[in-house]
Amino acid sequence: MAKIVAGIACSHVPAIGVAMDRGVTGTPYWEPLFRGYEPARAWLAALAPDVAVIVYNDHACAFSLEIIPTFLIGVAEQFPIADEGFGPRPVPTVQGSPALAWHLAESLILDEFDMTIANAMPVDHGLTVPLSITCGKPAEWPFPVIPLCVNVVQYPPPTGARCFKLGQAIRRAVEAYDQDLRVVIYGTGGMSHQLQGERAGLINREFDTAFLDGMTKDPIGLTKLTHTEYMREAGSEGVEMVMWHVMRGALDGNAKEVYRHYHVPASNTAAGLMILEDGGGT
Amino acid sequence: MKEPRDYESIPGTYVYDARRGREGYALNMFCMSLNKAENRKSFKDDASAYLDRFALTAEQRRAVLQRDWLGMLKVGGNIYYTIKIAFCDGLTFQDVAGMMSGVPKEVYAQMMLAGGRSPQGNRYKDAAKENDERG
Question: What is the C-alpha separation between B73 and B61, in angstroms, rounded?
Fold first, then answer.
């Protein structure tokens, strides 16, 4: 049987990827952020998962406004790196995990989550920056990846509660898979940030700290935050944090926090990273 | 849904909802086209001619040509899309965020280094409402 062994919550700020691609992570601006990533990289290398499910949002790369899937799963063999408007990032092509991805797609749909299925799509910084943060700059990514996209670009995104339930369904589907695979799940985006309008640059450390604490103390309570509460308290793009609930829902009730890093600023954003190990329960 | 939407009480924020989605579709699809290198080149070579390919309103066209970042949001621009024009110009997200909030680049950068814009006083358009909610 396959198992979810851990969850990683991680911001996906594009500038973090640019800093790595340009080799400037040691500057006074970036060094404190990247220093905090080192323990997470060591932890993940030691864990050596067989496959990762990465929950993220596309930023007008794979999808435009022509078709806006609320939840989508990528079942391809490979996912090329998107040109987001300044050329593709110089990182390895992402290898998929089609057998498990198709199993998840079928299981989730029959479990009443109406997934869109993607046989071909490029992946943008929403997926590749969390990989870079947690894996560094390898010649090939150390594990295959199943991309799971959530719409947060066109209002309304799915609710936090719905995202949490999707995570629970992912756990059921993984546990019903007949191969012994150790699966890690990423919930990406956030934390507080606002990229638009006169209020751009909003950061709410108090909100972010409570959100990080809530991941273990009161994950169900956190799912009750409304979109307007996210936008008012954590900035208009802070609503990306609904994606963390997919990750949290896929872990058991006793998931333990084993690492946390929080840093302001990464460009316009409060960058958060949290590692949760599954308790092995239900 | 009930109108006005509760998020409309947030100051300086343009939520890309159904109304803006209808208004901004062509503008954002133009931005999307800049994901292709050949289109970026055509836009750089002759912006006005390139924009003729898209059904923009006069105000959307003006906002793009003048790089009025805030103006684009007011006529249906979605920041995840309009930022592609900035990338084409060699600007960063932080450059554009500073321009939208109406302060010089250095002032904005310093605000971020100091911990960002405080939510205090920035939660409601109506300052009295914030005091009520915070008790």
Answer: 13
Q: Which two tokens stand for residue A19?
A: 């800093």
pLDDT digits (tens, 9 = 90+) for A150-192: 999 999 999 999 999 999 999 999 999 999 999 999 999 999 9
Residues A121, B12: Cα–Cα separation, whole Å: 34
Q: Which residues of A touch B118 (CB under 8 A)?
A: 202-203
Are A200 and B73 in contact (CB < 8 Å)?
no
A199's tokens: 């209020």
Q: How many Å apart are CA A264 and CA A191, to the nearest integer?
A: 10
Look at B112 and A85 and tell me if their CB atoms are within 8 Å: no
**Is A125 considered catalytic here?**
yes
Count of CB pairs separated by less than 8 Å, A with B? 151
- What is the value of pTM for the model shown? 0.97
- Where are any strands of DSSP class E within B9-79? none
pLDDT digits (tens, 9 = 90+) for A116-160: 999 999 999 999 999 999 999 999 999 999 999 999 999 999 999
Predicted-complex ipTM score: 0.95
Q: DSSP per residue over A153-177, as a string? A: SSSPPPPHHHHHHHHHHHHHHHHT-
Q: Residue A30 contacts by C-beta under 8 Å, 6 or more apart in sequence?
A: A19, A24
Q: Which of A103, A193, A245, A261 is catalytic?
A: A193
**Which residues of chain B fall below pLDDT 50?**
135
- Does position A280 have pLDDT exceeding 90, yes or no? no
Cβ B29–A65 below 8 Å, yes or no?
yes
Decide if A245 contacts A157 (C-beta within 8 A). no
Cα separation, A79 vs A177, in Å, equals 23
